[in-house]
Amino acid sequence: MKKITLTIFLFAFAIISYSQDQTTFILVRHAEKADDGTRNPPLNEMGKERANYLSDLLSRQEIDGLYSTPFKRTMETLQPIADQQGLEIKNYDPFAKGEWLQTIVEKHGNGTVIISGHSNTIPALANALLGEEKFEQWDESDYSNLIFIVATEVGKGKLVRLKF
Questions:
Q1: Cβ neighbours for 134, distance < 8 A, ≥ 6 positions apart
Q2: Neighbours of 121 (CB within 10 A)
Q3: Are strands 89-91 and 112-117 parallel, antiparallel or unpaired?
Q4: How far is CA 99 from CA 92, 94, 108, 144, in A?
Q5: Pairing label, strands 112-117, 23-29
Q6: Closest CA to 68 of 59, 50, 80
Q7: Pick from 23, 58, 46: nearest CA to 156
Q8: pLDDT confidence of residue 160
Q9: Of 51, 35, 2, which is closest to residue 140 (Cα–Cα)?
Q10: Residue 123 burial class via C-beta count within 10 angstroms: exposed 0-12, middle 13-18, buried 19 and up
């Protein structure tokens, strides 16, 4: 069933991303985190499995940039992709939306970037890219959203949303 869903997604994504000079944003909340009592916990075992699954899911996609907030859980979510594609994870300020996102569009035109964030920051980034308030903060227990947005400029993106 997951392969059928992925095939349908890839077909839909190909349709919306046909235009040239578009940046593809893949937005993901960090995977499941450990409950270690700190403000900066790593991923737990389920989170590590989800991070590896995400890497497998995107293994045939050429990725041009990986961006993460400077927390263990967000960076560990992207680490399998970084290892697989030989990329460095760059940190970003999750509250600097507009200018930072436009810089990414300009830097990675015709490319694909993955941004890992949090239940409150990824919906806000998606809204900024789309130019509308489509997403609210996600529930603390929701780790399964995978958002694809294709944009030539911030505020005019096209959306495909999956659960993984």
A1: 126, 127, 159
A2: 21
A3: unpaired
A4: 12, 12, 14, 28
A5: parallel
A6: 80
A7: 23
A8: 86
A9: 35
A10: buried
Pairwise CA distance, residues 143 & 48, whole Å: 12
* Per-residue tokens: 138: 């996600």
Residues of the chain with pLDDT under 50: 1, 4, 8, 11-12, 15-17
pLDDT of residue 15: 44
**Which H or E run contains 16?**
helix 2-16
Q: Which two tokens stand for residue 54?
A: 């995400």
Structure tokens at 28: 């993901």
Half-sphere exposure of 149 (CA within 13 A, CB side): 30
Distance spanning both ends of the chain, measured CA to CA: 12
Computed over its alpha carbons, how large is the radius of gyration of the chain?
A: 15
Which tokens go with 46? 């389920």
* Tokens coding 147: 């958002």
The percentage of the chain sitting over the pLDDT mark of 70, rounded to a whole number, equals 87
pTM of the model: 0.87
Angle at 93 between CA 26 and CA 139, to 5 degrees: 60
**Which of left, alpha, beta for 150 (phi over 0: left; psi -120 to 50: alpha)?**
beta
